[in-house]
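thread from #wetlab-drylab

HS: before we spend reagent money on co-crystallization trials with zinc ion, can we at least see a predicted complex? here's what I'd submit
DV: go for it
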Amino acid sequence: MDLPNSLYSFAVVVNAFIVKYDMMQELSLEEIRTKAFQFHENNTVWHFHILTPKCKFNKKSLYAFVLEGEDGAQRFIHYSKLPPNDLGKELAPLAHKSKVLDQKTTDVDYIPSETIKKIIDRARELNQQSIEWHHHVTFPGCQFNTNNSRFTLIFEDPETGDTIENASEKEPINDLKQIEPLFYSQTKI
Ligand SMILES: [Zn+2]
Ligand SMILES: [Zn+2]
């Protein structure tokens, strides 16, 4: 089959994504917690994701906690009926090496981009309506990152199905300090 180059590249990327996703090992939440602390103690690069049942990266209609270590070379997943937000809250400051749940620690000269402002406004609106939403930060090497050398903050709008994305060269710590407290203050999650 003679595919145009761009289509062929797209097919390769999609295929790589599927292969990577299928490689995730299922563990209990406690085992994932232990692994995350091991990564932290060994100074291994790691991060995690909470996937809601509506998440575009989720294959099941359950919540999922995804842990990735060593630039995505190690990947673990745990599915649950209830949102795994307690572990998320515990691990978020470790994963980002910063007090991302504390808006008061935002840099004084921080000015959010227009895209980030849009995410914050929409998150507040959804919280007021008690509509569950979530976001991701894809790190370099992350299986969900299509922008591989950069960090991307992805907000998924549960009502429209749209995503709002903000890519940055540095980890978006100040942005997270606005968004993470909103995420964990949701009544449903
Ligand atoms: Zn998602
Ligand atoms: Zn990831």
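DV: The first helix runs from residue 5 to 22.
HS: ok that's useful, forwarding to the group
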